[in-house]
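Project standup — Tuesday

K.O.: blocked on the structure for the chain from last sprint. Re-posting the sequence here as requested.
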Amino acid sequence: MKVTPRNINFRLVARLSGMLLLVMAMAMALPLAVSLHRGDGAQYGLLLSGLVLTAIGLLLRNIVGRNVSYELRERESFWITSVAWLVVPLAGALPYLFTGVLGTFTDAAFEAVSGFTTTGSSVVERPEEIPAGMLVWRAITQWIGGLGLILFIVAMLKRLNKGSLQLYSAEFSGTQQRKLHPHIAKSVSRMWRIYTIITLILLTLLVLAGNGVLDSFCLALSTVSTGGFMTAQYGLSGYSELTLSILTVFMFLSGVNVALLYNLFTFRWRQLRINHEFVLYAGIFLFASASCAVAFLAVGNGVGESVRYSLFHIASTISTCGFYTDAPVVWPFWVSAVTFMLVLVGASAGSTGGGLKLRRLMTLFIYLRNYLTRMVHPNVVFAVKIDHRVVPGDYVNKIFGFAFLYICFIIGGAFLLTFSGQSISEAFCYAAANISNLGPSPLINSMGANLDYALLPPLAKWTLMTLMLAGRLEIFALLAIVSPSYWRRR
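H.V.: unblocked you, prediction finished:
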């Protein structure tokens, strides 16, 4: 039997999509309250957006998806993941339109997709001038998207049972995730609790460091989600050294597997030391920071400035957060080379960061090392092992496929961007930054590209949105439903 639209439980897809839209509507309550308190004029647009999403969400959940069967198979999991990551970000564009912050649907969609994918690329040229309620909404979109839209469903809906595993796998396609509990729903609930606790700790520290509550809230949500939206045109320039130091620590932590961070709260720190991916992540961070500090010193920058900026800059880059502040006057080429490599490498698997992810690269390296060894010693049998566990062969194959698709998307995206008037170097910088979900980083600017997203034509913006979604959705789920072989499966 071929897979046809009749074989897909679209009523379940509609019901779960409706639930996500209702969550979105509820998430607008806080921005609405802030706008009402500040009297910034955005309350009417936010209220209208919330009512529209509530109406659509109730229609999908209670009418289209009424009395639905909760039998969830792989086919539905791919559909739910893909539809959620397409519908929810586009729905999140409504507040930008209804409040008048952005004038076109393309710009509003770009801002919303960038937020939910935690890319941080922005067409808002002066964030400090938009209503406070909309600043809060921008931050919330990143925070919701940071851990994953689908994980909201998994945490809320225990009736999915085995289907939760399908959704969990689709959300983290191409990576193996460590569970915190044998039951997926409870494991995901713990991940959300950890995520929330880290956010509250950072928010408290930022307020104690002398920052305003609004700025602290937006920065905390942007940091923990590795989103990168900032509340001022010139990034974090003007913030105190204490604030930047706090953000450096939490940007680094946000690039760590959320499940692994559970060990910090249970005082099982040895688990961090024996985790190969974390050790490599920390090692790369320290080496890159030290080498960049030396490079800054070598061209005449001060010691304190070089060390502080290098730590901040590398933490921002490797976590794909994308925050930036005043850079040293002289920028050596070595820093550009190191940070461009980190854009592609990205953070740990299971973190809120983007990029290819370290665990995938570790697997590829070990496989290639074993392959070269077998060329010399053909009778030797090797297995790919990480953390003393054998990595299944089908997972290794999936990683090779993912890496190939990742490169193809960068090349294809850059090709399309050249039709929008971008030079080849600018096109590749745009493509690499956005598929890695590292939109606003000035390190790309230092390599010759001027990342002013507001000036891009619509074709370029929709191309970049596609790259953002491909990087955040991790490609496989979206490609699965448009593949002819998918519909020929029995």
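K.O.: great, moving the ticket to review. Residues 360-460 form one domain. The two ends are 5 Å apart (CA to CA).
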